[in-house]
Give the backbone structure.
Amino acid sequence: MNKKVEEFLTVKNIVIASLIAAIYATTTILLAPISYGPIQVRVAEALTLLPYLWPQAIPGLFIGCLISNFAGGFGLIDVVFGSLATLLAALVTSRMPNPYLAALPPVIFNALIVGGYLSVLAKMPFLYTAMYVGLGEIIACGFLGIPLIIFLEKKFIKEKRER
């Protein structure tokens, strides 16, 4: 096995990814009335900024989104493309230089990808679905995700550096 993959697949990293997947899926499903559809604010999307701090969040977000989208009622297209949007956003977020820029990939990828297929499924103009999904992402990532990441960074990352 590749040494980088081997280092990544530790019990600790698998547990972290699993917890993130569970929190994402549970939050999304419990808040189903606002988590799905052309007009949505998926609160769990605040977690999509976690790869900025911890790359092991990437598979957890992907799996959590996958599980959530199975429960969402928009079928296989939502499972595949919604989860892909989250995966791509998480990968790009992990390379962002600060929490503010880390919020952009989830907003952009979801507005374009999720907005794209929801416009077809909901028979609405793409501009509207992209705008609604993007606005929901701005609320989740900007107003919830950025403060969460700033708090976690102060609490855990700087604490590690002091040791």
